[in-house]
Amino acid sequence: MNRRAAAFVLGLALALVAGGALWWWLQSRAGGAGGPGGPAGADGKTSPVPFELWVPDGNGLRLERRELQVTDAPKDRLRRITEALLAPRPDGARLFPEGVAIAGVQLSGDGTAYLNLVWEGHEDPPPSGSTEEMQRIYGLVNSATTNVPEVKRVVLLWNGAQRPTFAGHLDTSRPLLPSPALRTR
Amino acid sequence: MNDRRFLGLLALLCLLLPPVFLAAQGQQAPPQPTTPLPGTARQPSVVLDGAPLPAPVTINPSGPLFGLTALVNNLGGQLADGGEESVTLTIEGKDVVIGVGSAIVTVGDGLVSLSQPPIRGEGTLLVPLDFLQKTYGDLAGYAFEWRPTLQQLAISRQAAREIPVLLDVVHLQGMTTVVLQFQEIPRYQVQRQDGLVRVQMMGDRLAPPPAPPTVTDPLVQAVMVGPEQVSIQLIPGAQASSYVLENPFRLVFDVHMPSQTPSPSTPSLRPTQRPAGINTVVIDPGHGGTETGAIGPSGVQEKELTLTIARELEASLESRLGIRVVLTRNEDANVPHDARTAIANQNQADLFISVHLNSSLGAGAHGAETYFLSADASDARAARRAEAENAGEASEGASGTSNLTSGMDQDLELILWDLAQTHHLLESQRFAAMIQGELNQTLQLRDRGVKQAPFRVLNGAAMPAVLVELGFVSNPDEEKKLQDSAYRAELIASLTRAISRYKALVEKKPDPMAIQPGQPGQQPAQPGAAQPAPGAPGVRPPGTR
Predict the structure, then answer these.
(1) What end-to-end distance do the CA atoms of chain A give, in Å?
(2) Chain B interface includes A1 (CB < 8 A)
(3) B contact residues 84-103, partner A, Cβ 8 Å cutoff
(4) Within an 8 Å CB–CB cutoff, is residue B359 touching chain A?
(5) Going by C-beta distance under 8 Å and a sequence separation of 6 or more, which residues neighbour residue B18?
(6) At what angle do helices B406-418 and B375-399 cross, to 10 degrees?
(7) Under a CB-based contact definition with an 8 Å cutoff, are residues A149 and A78 in contact?
(8) Residue range A58-67: average pLDDT?
(9) pLDDT of B541 higher than 60
């Protein structure tokens, strides 16, 4: 084999090695993302990300780790988190009655998230005592603010409108800040 | 190409590719906590003020983790294991709730996000560096520095500050208020033992007042201010409760004799003998009309029981205390929340009590709790008022005249209305504590305590206002009890006693103006505002020293 042919083969081999290494490195970067709140790709692709949801527990709320399939868009994460909270839990318990759903999510530049809840066939939110109302409202508010760093406060809407209260207690006419004190010990 | 050379190149490729792939795979391998073996690498260590501290250290790819138990033993604090999932660490009276495996911890009422979750290992809970900085650093004044080259955590006590403290002792109608006013927020711990209350500085030193305090008080024997602590010696049998006021930072102790608490039958409480004070009470039966409130397992609706209880309380207050009582509703009707407080304000009520029954999504919830408006609600209102006022000023500035639209005027008016309760938070808290205390004592209910929440119905009340949850209708046992008139009579008696106690406290004030209801947006001479009740120190009514 002449020198030119040998150099060509060697160059090809080195290119193969470098290309393979580059391909592997890119693969590892894309697949390795997805830590708590970590990026999952900006191309709309979803990946499983662990979140900590505030779920009812006794008289308050507790943190429950849940893995959700999300993109890296804060609005998408907010929606998936809310959907997860509205879905029945393994024991069948629910944060809101069956049929309550998230109709829309908005996130403003100042960190105010807007969650629009709807309930087919019901004009008003479900009636409850104050503890139950706090569990529902702060289950949503705390979960949003804890897991989506862009969310600082939450405005809850019912059928597209803000209400003075959901069930006659908490003032929902204003943006709500998280209430970590509701965490049970 | 020569076959031998070609094969040689192929062999070279085979040799080169696997290490590259393995190296890439190695990058992706999940991080495992590692503790270097002795002799193979520098052993990670912890030093406190230069002296070795025997705490385990685990080196994790996300950063080092430190054994909490040994640190607590050396830095102070209390560790309570709440089982597999959570651990509570108490530092300087603040609870830090750690969820094992969770990167979010609760510090007091705040949430703190950590760089990595605490994990169990080496026979203890292992916590990251930022956990230590945000707990022991912020609460106890320690400085933490991780030195990677030495693989060493250096802990040092921050230089002690010398904080000037002022002392004030006021005795007013059976209660003594001791106020310690600090120029900066100190790090301290309150300890109580046999009539001695000690405020122990944690790392800070006190600059005592120029003249040693001389205390002549029926409930407080002496107050001693030293560089490291303040000691308050009570007379035998006296009790002290403490709370904090801010801007400036004040630590306040209310001292009283439990036996001096007036009972409803005390002659001085009879209407003919009492001065102006608690004359009108507005009772708000929660919910009504289409708003049922909580619904019990047997179908009992909260709105029905709250109306029944409100009527019974009305009768009790009128007959036993001679107080004028107004109900916000006397039938099953929808009454907007703002209308409820409007009724109280229009009637110049001295107290507003919203009566509710509770429900929970969790099983087994029971007991009573009393709420007053949370500060964040009032702060939010204040912010909105400022925004609206600023908007108004901006408009004025542009044209030289007020360009506030009628809608904006209305909005501002509503915001001012919303702010009404902010002037009464301290008195609301005091009143709530009295209600809760009576409920606990009489009914042996589970003490769910005095709490704060942004309750809509409390916003607009221009007087001390509370929302009392008298039990859980979602709990079958309590639902049944709440339908029993004998049980309700005990509840009513408790509430009546609490109102009687509060009434006695307020009416013994020398300044009758201090108990007139204020108007939203004004600086009212109200308990808890500028003219304080006992327990609202800093300013005292004239002629009380």
Answers:
(1) 77
(2) yes
(3) 86, 88, 97, 99, 101-103
(4) yes
(5) none
(6) 150
(7) no
(8) 91
(9) no
Q: Are A68 and A146 in contact (CB under 8 A)?
A: no
How confident is the model at residue B32, as a pLDDT? 38
| B236: three-class secondary structure by DSSP | coil
Contacts (Cβ under 8 Å, ≥6 apart) of B4: none
pLDDT in tens, B204-223: 789 887 777 778 888 999 99
CA B506/CA B521 separation, integer angstroms: 23
- Return the residue matching tokens 């004998």: B486
Chain A interface includes B293 (CB < 8 A): yes
Interface contact A22, partner B, CB < 8 A: no
Determine contact, residues B448/B432, Cβ cutoff 8 Å.
Answer: no
What is the Cα–Cα distance from B442 to B490, expressed in whole angstroms?
7
Cβ pairs bridging A and B (under 8 Å): 172
Structure tokens at A7: 């150099």
Tell me if residue B326 falls in helix, strand or coil: strand
Tokens 């830090």, residue? B96
Tell me the backbone φ, ψ of residue A50, rounded to 5 degrees.
Answer: -75, 135
Task: Yes or no: say if B392 and B406 are a contact pair by the CB < 8 Å rule.
Answer: no
pLDDT of B91: 87
Of B78-92, B358-372, B446-460, the least confident: B78-92
Beta-bridge mates of residue B107: B96, B110
What Å distances lie between residue B280 and A56, B326, B354, B543, CA to CA?
A: 39, 7, 14, 27
The CA distance from B285 to B152, in Å, is 62
The count of C-alpha atoms lying within 13 angstroms of the C-alpha of B196, restricted to the half-sphere facing its C-beta, is 8
Contacts of residue A131 in chain B, CB cutoff 8 Å? 358-361, 365, 469, 472
**Which secondary-structure segment (H or E) carries B380?**
helix B375-399
How far is CA A65 from each of CA B58, B227, B340, rounded to the nearest angstrom? 24, 47, 42
Please indicate if any CB of chain A lies within 8 Å of the CB of B336: yes
Whether the upstream peptide bond of residue B297 has omega within 30° of 0, thus cis, is no
Residue B523: CB atoms within 10 Å: 11
pLDDT tens-place string over residues B10-20: 666 655 555 44
Mapping DSSP onto H, E and C, the string for B146-167 reads EECCCCEEEEEECCCCEEEEEE
Q: Cβ distance B519 to B462 under 8 Å?
A: yes
B350, with CB counted inside 10 A (0-12, 13-18, 19+), is buried
Q: What are phi and psi of A156, to 5 degrees?
A: -100, 130
Q: Is B385 on the interface with A (CB under 8 A)?
A: no
For chain A, the farthest-separated pair of C-alpha atoms sits apart, in whole angstroms, at 90
Spell out which residues of chain A touch residue B472, defining contact as CB-CB under 8 Å: 129, 131
Q: Do B104 and A128 touch (CB under 8 A)?
A: no
Which amino acid, residue B377? A
Q: What residue has token string 């619904």?
A: B295
Please tell me the distance from the alpha carbon of residue B259 to that of residue B23, in angstroms, as a whole number. 78
pLDDT tens, residue by residue, A29-59: 433 333 333 333 445 788 999 999 999 988 8
Within 8 A of B411 by CB-CB distance, chain A residues are: none
| Contact between A168 and B365 using a beta-carbon 8 Å cutoff | no
> Which two three-digit tokens encode residue A185?
């010990």
Instruction: Count CA within 13 A, CB hemisphere, residue A128.
Output: 23
